[in-house]
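=== RUN LOG ===
request id: a7f3
mode: sequence -> structure
chains: 1
length: 114
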Amino acid sequence: MRIVIEAPDDLAELLQARQAIDALLHPLMFNEPARAPVVRDRRSPVRLRELVLSVRTLNALAAESITTLDSLLKCRTSDLMRLPGFGRKSLDEVRGALESRGQHLQPDNPECQA
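=== RESULT ===
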């Protein structure tokens, strides 16, 4: 069997492709019936758990109801640094995850849901 994946550098699309491959290969490896791959609707919000972030960072954000990429992008750097359990290392993780998607925090945006 040969599987070819064509996806841009978007981590979410690579994860979706990986899930589709796993769904196809699982029945072959365990002799079970095939299951349909999980496909996320492009209009649905991107959950932060889809990004490569530590559990500590995810928990600090979730404690302030920041659970989607859209809600994170509305926050200023200074707002994030005031969150309990969110420090420089968490900020570096968030910046790295956003940069891998070609996005950045908006330090001058006054709207933050935190």
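=== NOTES ===
Helices lie at 11-30, 55-62, 69-73, 77-81, 88-100.
The two ends are 48 Å apart (CA to CA).
=== END ===
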